[in-house]
Structures are given as structure tokens and as C-alpha cells.
Specification:
Rossmann fold; single chain; two-stranded antiparallel sheet; 43% helix; disordered C terminus; 13 helices; 322 residues; globular; nine-stranded mixed β-sheet
């Protein structure tokens, strides 16, 4: 049975350094998350979850930027029980093997197991980048468990979104070296600049603590090695595999109200691509954030939080219970 495990203190210097860098991000925003470990049966995995606040539960599923990057958005979304997951292989979560498995089924089962372990019948789910796939697959495969879905930034939802150059590189033979050199704040800064966040970096809107933490994730954990192993299972010949992306029939079958927030400087897809996707999903809306990049909340946390809050609690609507 899925359940909650007692957190063990770090026993090695690398993990301790990573946790110090992570803590600095949350402290920058005046936040102190509670740590929980979730034991999942199928697939067998130990997931780390960081919880903040109280109220209606919102589960956050990160992309390749990593989990602590949610801090600025969580800070703006007070009044909810925010549950930030370390995806398998990230942070202190154990890895899983994606080889020879249906990707959509596996990720939906991971999130269903997390909800079971947390004792949640339902939850709102917020995804970023590939985390959008996780959120939407849960809504597709286990519709009774998801009340709303927020997809922040472009993601590999449909083939026409395209495979970003950095993901092609990670999937290539050269990717083994690439994931090892993304271990300094300057390399993280370059990655974020390529992702459409140059203006915010130049304006000092993305704090140094985020850059230091993301560098520590590559330097002091095996997150990027595990991420590369996953990417190599879902990117073949420079294109996404069919078990990663959604066809129109799958999108149309999703009944959970869905919000897509897309930054105008995001190179994953385009406004036209995400407008089409929103038109296929039964109850979806698109919001475009001018000047924002691939992780739009990094550029405009209060503006993105306002979109998310209005979506969760539209004017005149009663709050749902979970």
C-alpha cells in the first residue's frame, strides 16, 4: 500500500550541499516547507514532497528546471495547501526506469500513487514543461482524481510543439557530457536565457539563489543523469514518442477544466499551437503572458498567480472541497 515514510536526515556531503542550496531558495521567498516522503507501490518509488500552507490541495509537477523553481509562484498563491513533488530521480526522490513502459501510464500511476499516499481523493494539479504531460495524463487516465489542471509554459503535449534544441542535445550521445557541465550558476543563467528569460535575468528578477540551487541540482545530485535517461526514452530520432504526446481524441476526452498559461517568448510551440490545443480540450482556456519565457511564473509570478487563482476560484463560484 502507498503511504507516508519518515524523512531520514542526509548522510552524505553532496546531499547536504544540495539541501542547503534548496533551502536558500525557499527562504528567499520567506517560505519554510514541510518535508514528507511518499512510498509508492506501482511503480515502486519513494517520492519526496514539500508542503506549504493549508487549504485546498494543489500538487505541483516540475519540468527540467526542477522543483524549487516553483517557490516564487507558491509564495504568491497563499491560501492553498501547496504540495511540490520531486519527480522520480530529482532531489531526494528515487528514480524509476522508463524503458519499455508506456510513458503516459507510468506518470499517471506515479501521481495517482502520490495522491493515495497523501490521503487525497482529488486535487488540482499544476504542471510546468514536461510536468504538463504528467498533469494531463493523470486527468486523462484517472479523471475522478483531478478537479482542475493548470499547464504553465509550453510542453511536449502535441507533436507540433516541437522538441527544443536543448532536449535534442540531452537525448543525443553528447548529452552525457552536457548534463555534467550544467553545474554552475553561469551555465544555468545561459540555459534560462535560451528559454526566453533573458529580460528577467538582466533585470535581476530571477534571484541568484535560484541559479545556485539549480547548479547544485546538477552538481550534487544525479537528477540530470536520471532526466537524460528519461528523455532518451521519449525522444527518438529527434521527435517525441507517441506514448508521450496526445492525439486529438485523447485531448477531447479530457473533462477537467484546464488552464494553459504561455509566455510570448517561450520557444516551445507557439500561441497558435496552444490556441489549437485549448480549442480541442473540452473545457480549456489560454492565457498569454507578454514577455515571459518557458517558465512564465519566473518572469511574472504575481501575474501568473492571478491567472491561476482566478481559474481555481472564478468570481461568483463556490469553492469546491477536496
Amino acid at each position: 500500500m502507498a503511504g507516508i515514510a519518515i524523512a531520514d536526515p542526509p548522510t552524505d556531503a553532496r546531499t547536504a550541499r544540495y539541501l542547503t542550496a534548496e533551502r536558500a531558495v525557499w527562504e528567499h521567498y520567506g517560505l519554510s516547507p514541510r518535508e514528507t516522503f511518499l512510498e509508492l507501490d506501482s511503480p515502486a518509488c519513494r517520492l519526496r514532497a514539500l508542503e506549504l500552507g493549508s487549504g485546498e490541495p494543489v500538487v505541483f509537477v516540475h519540468g527540467t528546471v526542477g522543483p524549487a523553481a516553483w517557490a516564487s509562484l507558491v509564495h504568491e498563491l497563499g491560501g492553498f495547501r501547496s504540495i511540490v513533488l520531486d519527480r522520480p530521480g530529482w532531489g531526494l526522490s528515487s528514480p524509476i526506469d522508463f524503458a519499455d513502459r508506456d510513458y503516459g501510464e507510468v506518470v499517471a500511476d506515479v501521481l495517482r500513487g502520490a495522491l493515495d499516499a497523501l490521503g487525497l481523493r482529488t486535487a488540482r494539479v499544476v504542471g510546468g514543461s514536461i510536468g504538463n504531460v504528467w498533469a494531463l495524463r493523470l486527468a486523462e487516465r484517472h479523471p475522478r482524481r483531478v478537479t482542475e489542471v493548470c499547464m504553465l509554459g509550453g510542453g511536449p503535449i502535441v507533436p507540433e510543439a516541437g522538441v527544443p534544441g536543448v532536449i535534442r542535445l540531452v537525448a543525443s550521445p553528447a548529452g552525457a557530457l552536457f548534463v555534467r557541465v550544467m553545474n554552475s550558476p553561469s551555465s544555468v543563467r545561459a540555459m534560462l536565457r535560451r528559454s526566453g528569460h533573458g529580460a528577467s535575468l538582466d533585470a535581476g528578477l530571477i534571484p541568484d539563489a535560484v541559479l545556485e540551487w539549480r547548479a547544485a541540482a546538477a552538481r550534487d545530485t544525479n537528477a540530470m543523469q536520471y532526466e537524460r535517461a528519461m528523455v532518451r526514452q521519449i525522444v527518438k530520432g529527434g521527435t517525441y514518442t507517441s506514448d508521450l504526446t496526445f492525439d486529438d481524441g485523447e485531448l477531447a476526452a479530457i473533462q477537467a477544466p484546464t488552464l494553459i498559461v504561455y509566455g510570448s517568448e517561450d520557444g516551445v510551440g507557439s500561441v497558435d499551437v496552444w490556441r489549437r490545443v485549448a480549442g480541442v480540450i473540452a473545457h480549456a482556456n489560454l492565457r498569454v503572458v507578454a514577455g515571459a519565457g518557458h517558465m512564465p511564473w519566473l518572469d511574472d509570478p504575481s501575474g501568473v498567480a492571478a491567472h491561476v487563482r482566478r481559474f481555481f476560484h472564478p468570481p461568483g463560484a463556490q469553492r469546491s472541497s477536496s
